[in-house]
Structure formats: C-alpha cells, structure tokens
User: Fold this.
Amino acid sequence: MPRNAESTAFRSALEVIRGVEPRVADAIGAELADQRESLKLIASENYASPATLLAMGNWFSDKYAEGTIGRRFYAGCQNVDTVEALAAEHARELFGASHAYVQPHSGIDANLVAFWAILADRVEAPALQRAQARHVNDLTEADWFALRRELGNQRMLGMSLDAGGHLTHGFRPNISGKMFDQRSYGTDPVTGLVDYDRVAEAAREFRPLVLVAGYSAYPRKINFRIMREIADSVGATFMVDMAHFAGLVAGKVFAGDFDPVPHAHIVTSTTHKSLRGPRGGLVLCGPELADQVDRGCPMVLGGPLPHVMAAKAVALAEARRPDFAGYARQIVDNAQALAEGLLRRGARLVTGGTDNHLVLIDVTGYGLTGRQAEQALLDSGIVTNRNAVPQDPNGAWYTSGIRIGTPALTTRGLGTAEMDGTAELIHTVLSQTSAGVGPDGTASKAKYVLDPAVADKVSRQASELLSGFPLYPDVELG
Ligand code: DSN
Assistant:
C-alpha cells in the first residue's frame, strides 16, 4: 500500500466519493487511467500538479464572495481574500503586471471582462456613466436603450479564425461577435506569417476601438511591440489574449517584443493550458483599466470560484519557481523537434514549422480531411484535434488540419529525443490512412480506412513510448 502523501490524498478522496456515488469515483479513476495511457497532443491541455488539483477539492467551493478583495457583498470572506490576494500577487509578480484580476472562470469570461472594461473606458457613453453611478433598479428603460445604442457597434480588429484566431475575438458564433463589428487580419498566403504591414493597413481603413492579438492555432510568435505601434497609430486599445502561450511568457521564452505584458493595454489568459494551472482565466492590466476590470463580477461573472482561485495561487507559485523556465523552454524545443521530425517524413506544416508550443499539420498532403485524420490518430492512441488551416477548403467542421502541441507531453518528461518517435507514429498513421467513400460512392470527408493492425501497432508503440514517463508517478490509486 503506497504511503506517500499524494497517493493517500487521492485514494482517500475517492474512497469518500465512492461511499456516495461509486460511479463518479470510477469515472475519476478511469480518467486518470485514460490520461496515463494516451499520447496527449492537444495543444491546449496539460497536467496540473497534485497540489493544484487538491487545492480545488475543499470548503472554498462552498463560499460566495462576490465583490473584490476587502469589498465583498457577503460576510465571512477573509479566507477567500487571502487566496485571491495570493493568486493576484503571484500573477503580478510572475508576469510583471501592475494589476491582476484572477476571478474569471474561463478564457471567454476573461475576454468579456476585458471587452467591457475597454468599452467602459473608451466609449463616450453617458448612459454607461449613469448605469455605473446608480443602483441597477433605478435605471429606466430609456437608460437601458441608450446604453445599448451607445455601446453597440464598436469595432474590433483581430486575427481571422482560419489563420488561428479565436472565436471570442469578435466572431459571430460568440457573443463578442454580437458586441463588436469585427474585421479580421489573416496571414500571408505564401509564408503563412502575420504580415504587419497588412495589419497596419487594415487598422487604418477600419479604425478599430480594439486591436486584438492572440491565437489558438498560429504556430509562430507575434511581435507585440509592432502591434502596439499599430494600435497607437489609430488610437485603438491593444489587447492580447495569451491563453495558449501564457506558460511561455511566464517562463520568459517569449521575452522583449514577444512578451505581451509591457506592450498591451490589457492581457487576458486562461490558467490551464501551457501555464499548467487549474481550469480558469485571469486578466492583467495597468492602473488605468484596473477599476473597470475589477467590476468583472457582477458585470460578466457570477460569484467567484474561491477553490479555483486557491488552485490558481498554487499553480502560479509553481510557475514562479526557477524550474518553470526550463519547462517552458522544453515545450518549445519539443515542438520544434516534433515539427522537424514531421517535415523530414514529408508532412506539410502551416508556416513550415513552429516557434511556440504547437504545430499545425496540413493533412491534405496525406489526402485526408482533419476529421478523418483526427479519428484515425485517436484509433491509434494519439489524442489531437482537427483545426482549420488558412483558407481552409474543407471549412471549420471537417477542416484540413491537425493541431498538435507539446505542453502536456513535456510535463510528463518527454524530451526532444522522444519527439522523433512521436513524429514517426503520427506519420505512420496519417500515411496509412485513406479517405473512405460515402453510401452514394462519392468521396467522404468523414469516413476513412485504416488497417486495425496498424492502429493497434501504433497504440502499442505509443504506450511503450509513454511507459518511460509515468504520469503522476507518486499517485497510486490501487
Ligand atoms: N478550446 C481552446 C483550444 O483548444 O484552443 C481554446 O478556447
């Protein structure tokens, strides 16, 4: 029977849960087993530390704490104040920001908090001033109507979805696309890179209130100094969504012109991707926007999640340790080694490589759609996600790309030596999969043919590769 603290903690927790609803305990155990067995290459996922996970399973979950530190709408929030202040302090110190708001429950919440802060700061809206000065019940229908009219139709310029931008940057399926009139900048059709001259041209033509930089599928760095100059040239507020690469900023791999914090007016992030914390979000800004950002609850958010803020404090403390910089560097080294391994085997990569944590394979080079490739890889024990490529001929559902990322495997301890083997497994599956046909005999974008013997062999090889890098080696559930 294992006696270490981590095993004891998780085993005891499962025993308690099993006493009430055994199926939940079983599902939690099964999730750990699945995570241990699969080659996890989803660029936005990671493995939080046991301390971070354990910080979420406690009495903070029971507490309401609307408001901000020291100014709550509920009594008895002194312990929530402690963890929120710690999380904010670690965030400020880690990223060199003057203000940190750690209440957002997710990345979209963080972005909405930022958008409203920018609107409140920038838009001449007497109705907004009235709304903020008075109790909500005192506002008349005319006030609300004026507020909607004054705040609506503001302009946002952000990266296009197929170039790697994010839905929350003003796209129609997301509420940000209803709040803002959005225009996108894409990438150069030949190099696949952001063309700053084109961004500047679009900014001059469109005159956005907000210029957004940030991505979930662009495999390169962005020069935030240049983007800020573009924003300044048209009087826009410059916002960076660093959800994907926050860990690389924390680890100082993205420094100077590539560190968003000194250049942006406001920075948002998730905490669970390359930053390796709990599922959640945060906002960083200077003193000018701090007051508006702190109104995130109740403007956008419900009551904060104090148990998650406790976990954010733990994870951010971990990211401030010297070894986090080595982790961040290794993420990028691994992504580059993976890209090189794929290129050597003939894969087609968007932008021809990477300088961050992700690689985007254009699987039309293998005669597949993203959907076919994603499923064939999954059959073979390799977990990825399909993603659009620039000017994607297959649209956002079937797509032509597979996005892979290295934060999770790097946490597990895999290094550049293992990335060549990983590239070989991916290439084997993709090169041995072919497009299937639909019931009417025409080419299908979803069906595929992969010999199960190949899938089994790759699954076994993936397990062998992972066996040298146990996940949560100190946790034995028995
Ligand atoms: N869903 C996240 C990702 O996978 O990149 C972004 O929101």
User: Anything to note?
Assistant: The longest strand covers residues 443-449.
